């Protein structure tokens, strides 16, 4: 796994408290603001409070203007992104939500694996976000998403085909032929790195 070149961002232990922590805000236009960020705990937060120095008066930045937030907590660095989640609807097609929400980066490589912002590590929900996209699509893994009554194999095939189209066709074929039956998100990451990862 040393060659995976994927950074694991700690999820467990990140109970967000209302306090100012060191961090960096990256805006959609590429501008960065490093200073102190109010450690929010609401995935629906529309405004993020920031100040350059501890004694400064805070300014509020609209979440819609932010590409990424990094919070340097005692437990490690938390990276969050404001995205439209999308999941498979009753018609069997992916549907993007009407509003954005904050998600944590669980793994970072050619793409980001996102997890719910306000929860601890939850193996039932993972979404994939590709660079430059403002949405994250849920990936339905066999062992996970236990609350979903629909056929898991169908959901897995559909989500992999949608998320990795023209990016990792080998994975789509492997899932369809059942030579790849991922039980965890690490199975997806391992296959991608071994078969489709971009050359440095």
Structural features, described:
- The chain has 200 residues and is an alpha+beta fold.
- It is built from 3 helices and 12 strands; from the N terminus they run E-E-E-E-E-E-E-E-E-E-E-E-H-H-H.
- The protein has helices at 152-163, 169-176, 185-195, and strands spanning 7-8, 20-27, 32-38, 47-51, 59-62, 66-73, 76-88, 94-96, 101-108, 112-116, 127-129, 135-138.
- The chain has a 5-stranded mixed barrel with strand order 7-9-10-11-12.
- Strand 11 (127-129) and strand 12 form a beta hairpin.
- It is elongated, with a radius of gyration of 18 Å.
- The two termini are 17 Å apart.
Question: How do the strands and helices of this protein lay out in sequence?
Answer:
Elements: E1 7-8, E2 20-27, E3 32-38, E4 47-51, E5 59-62, E6 66-73, E7 76-88, E8 94-96, E9 101-108, E10 112-116, E11 127-129, E12 135-138, H1 152-163, H2 169-176, H3 185-195
Parallel strand pairs: 7-12
Antiparallel strand pairs: 1-9, 2-3, 2-6, 3-4, 4-5, 6-7, 7-8, 7-9, 9-10, 10-11, 11-12
